[in-house]
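Forum: Protein Structure Q&A
Topic: Joint prediction for protein chains with partners

I've read a bunch of threads here and the consensus seems to be that you should model interacting components together rather than docking separate models afterwards. I'd like to see that in practice. Below is the full input, 602 residues plus whatever partners are listed. Could one of the regulars post the assembled result?
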Amino acid sequence: MTDEKNTEKPARKPRILDRKTQEARRRFLRSLGLAAGVVTASVVGFIPVLRGYNPRLRPPGALAEDEFLASCIKCGQCVQVCPVEAIFLADIMDGFGNGTPHIDARAQACDFSCDGLQCVLACPTGSLSHDTNYPHQVRIGFAELARPDLCLAMQGKGFKGRIRAGEAGFNGLFRYAELDRWNPLPITEQEFDREICDLCIVHCPIEIRRNQCEAGEPPAGDLNQCPPTRAIGLEPDPGGGMRPVIYEGCVGCGACEMACPVTPAAIVVDMTKNADTVKA
Amino acid sequence: MKSLGESFMQLLGRAPTKPGKDDIAPKAQEIHFYKRSQKLDMDEVRRLHDEKPDKNKWLKRRWATLLFVNLLFVVSYYFDIQLLEGALTASRFLGFHMADLNSALQVMLAFKTVLINLLIGTVTVFVLWFLVGGRSFCSWVCPYHLLSEWAERIHLWLAKKKLVKDIPFHRAIRSVFYVIFALLALATGYTVFEAISPTGIVSRAIIYGPSLALLWVLFLLLFEIFVSRRAWCRYVCPIGITYGVVGLLSPMRVTYVLEDCKHEGDCRKVCLVPHVLDVTIKGRATDTRVPIGADCTRCGMCVDVCPTNSLRYEFSWLEKLK
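Posted by a regular:
Agreed with the consensus. Here's the joint model:
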């Protein structure tokens, strides 16, 4: 009996140990596999960011795109405070930008009807920089006359009726201060009759503020609200019509794009440009 | 202090260590000695469990709390009453800043700036979750936890029918993930983890409407149903470690009382982090009362399932007053 035990023991022991270490080894390799899988899944988010698949208009006061993506905590407080509900959160196709806020100007531009830049105040991380106090200090994007041939003013035409009234799914809001100081109204419900179409200028929040200031009635009685430079104006075009010209004071809010009565919009905020690329 | 180190190491992924004889208090040794002659009577265990007045007491309370908190965000936004604005990653409760600790950490690592509002929110949330138990965030608030619990039930049902088998990973992999995600944020300057965190994705989906990102969450749930039980919370999520650290010294915890325990092990079967309950294995408890470690999510499943009331919620500061 004792002999048997002695011969069996060394043979058995390694086998039992082996199974245990084998399982431990398998578990270790599996865990490495899990790590590789999850890290790959997370790093895939780099692709849309690096390639710039989804250029976005960020809310007013947004830091340079890289800093913005680094600092945004993706809580959506800016979404919640916007009175015209212009801000939406990006989805997973934006990669690392998943959950970050952006604006689709044609659907609903920022019209600064909150006056106080509520989204900036709401931002807990300063992604929307707290250094911004007034609409004219903002640089959301760069407006440009992308389709001059479609522009009514360029053709010397006027506009009569309602803007984009028949367009399915469009219910953009704009604050017409002379109609209602506090509540933004649906654009499609307003009647217009312009000899030469200047709806982009009529809807420009910067121009509106400048006009108010010139009339001696700055917004909220605060002279700081007065934009120092013009944003947009009509100038005679060599071709015969009037050309909407964008000036230094444009903040890229996209109100002109939203209010442009032709489809597709003649004037748009250029998605390929932003405050970072243009400065550089 | 020794138990604190043990608790921390378990949180990071080390297997619980068996206590040596010298580590066990004499009173506990007495009980262990007496219990050695006791046979486990499963009929008695079942009878005792059936006699409990409410077998889902804490489950009900917890699910109600979780749904309440998450719906409070929705109600606040929908009716614009500014009660609880934002999402779980960062919010304002009655105007006070709150920031999820892990999200805030990711942002600070990526942005490399400490923002004052974020710091205020972080401190508030730190104090709050320190008081209510650290990882209690996971089981009492995180909406993914609830989805994961439902997935777990499907997994267990399938496992009972021998259709699936739980494939475990090494728990230390979660600590590796923690370091990886911290380094990724630091190196890339993007909050990489936030983009794939199901906690943030589900929270935003509840408040701002469904997103394609939910497909990723669905994938995770399917993985948990068919491959590995509760895989995300157990092996991946860095949020769990962050709040686990907060809970290391938290007064709010589940406490194990050795005396009446039958050691039948039902608590370890229902637990998300069963290693913290190794103390309930016969002969393991170092004292007659042992607080459960930091990795415990204070979900109360063990409290509900325990037939002898040997696991119970305790607020240690109150215990000292008694």
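Chain A touches chain B at residues 27-28, 30-31, 34-35, 38-39, 41-43, 45-46, 49, 66-67, 69-77, 79-81, 88-89, 91-93, 95-99, 122, 124-126 (CB under 8 Å).
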